[in-house]
Amino acid sequence: xxxxAQAEDRVSTLIAAAxxxxxxxxxxxYVCDASTQVSVRxxxxxxxERSEGEDIGLRVFVGRxxxxxxxxxxxxxxxxxxVERAVAMAREAPEDPWxxxxxxxxxxxxxxxxxxxxxxxxxxxxxxxxxxxxxxxxARAIAGVTNSEGASASAGRSVIALATSHGFAxxxxxxxxxxxxxxxxxxxxxxxRDYAYHSTRHFADLETADAIGRRAGERAxxxxxxxxxxxxxxxxxxxxxxxxxxxxxxxxxxxGAAVARRTSFLLDKMGEAVFAPGIVVRDDPHRIRGLRSKPxxxxxxxxxPADLIADGMLTGWLLDSAxxxxxxxxxxxxxxxxxxxxxxxxxxxxxxxxGALSPADLMGDVKQGLYVTELIGQGVNPVTGDYSRGASGxxxxxxxxxxxxxxxxxxxxxxxxxxxxxxxSDLEFRRGVDVPTIRVEGMTIAGA
Length: 448
Known about the structure:
With 448 residues, this protein is α+β, with helices and mostly antiparallel strands. The protein has two domains: 4-220, PmbA/TldD fold (2-Layer Sandwich), CATH 3.30.2290; 226-448, no CATH class. The chain contains nine helices and 19 strands. Helix 3 packs parallel to helix 4. Residues 231-447 form the Metalloprotease TldD/E C-terminal domain. Pfam families: PmbA_TldD_1st, PmbA_TldD_2nd, PmbA_TldD_3rd.
């Protein structure tokens, strides 16, 4: 694995070679990932996996024509061939009026924010194994758990560097740790499975293995003997684990590509009330130790926190440079990219701000409703916002959680769902997309 300085030098050298070969402009991205994962099952070591790979991608422009190539071979000969191939491909590519690098005057300059994304730790495989075993033991100790799909613990480190022919060359590193357990409760056709996991940037922040295991076991046991729920319109509450997907649909609808192509159900909603008054949806790439925190985006623009929804109003799109040009707007520092291909746009650490009521208070007046803990399928139309997904969870009866239910379909339209959405007060930052418990009024339930 290269150091950050070495990675910056590598992408800068590649840019210089591309310009020398005839490219009018270019950018290059280096990514190296190294990780160790230990898996156990039924108290025995099942697998120890160590992986390390580095890749470099080059995008070149000849006029308005562009091409992208990538390689996992970083030798001098391989990179020289990469440059020649990229320039030759660009000369034959169709013209794209929106293609090009991010504006030079908008690139990150000066010191980058310290996001505490790399803790420098390197836990040994033996320590990961003990954590995985402890998580599975805690899950299997829950009464009613009858089998295990296993538990795991992992540790990894990444180095990322980006350079452009405008003179930008910056890099950063991140660490990542996770622990999980998945178990089965019950017997025969009545078996139910569930899981729990936690991921962090710092090893010291990782939840204890016992807590992860107990949560997995308790979730599986509470799902036993599910029934059906009568069809009708009723309030639906989403557990934070399931509710995060609603915010994912929102983020997808405000990306530049969806708006430019007119394939978004939030098209023409800029500056309008999309959620109820008081609702805030915030994207925060500067969250300390955040799972998606980063000092600059996929094109070298500085990142910054932003309220995408403020007091219920839609305030802006997520734009990379190409979609910004197409819409006649400025890029917003939300470019995302892989090693190959052009950048797109996306959110970083996205969350729905907490409300004033506890989850118990939020369901306190529900005579009959549904508390969703798992969603199944992909029945969401990004153009119209029509929403229909399989679900399982628990009946809400007289303001309290009652028996488990499964094989239910919940349906609505995301535009209506967002306007009828109320967040609870139990927000925790545990994922890349975080929400508290959410209540949505008047969804259609297809059950028994």
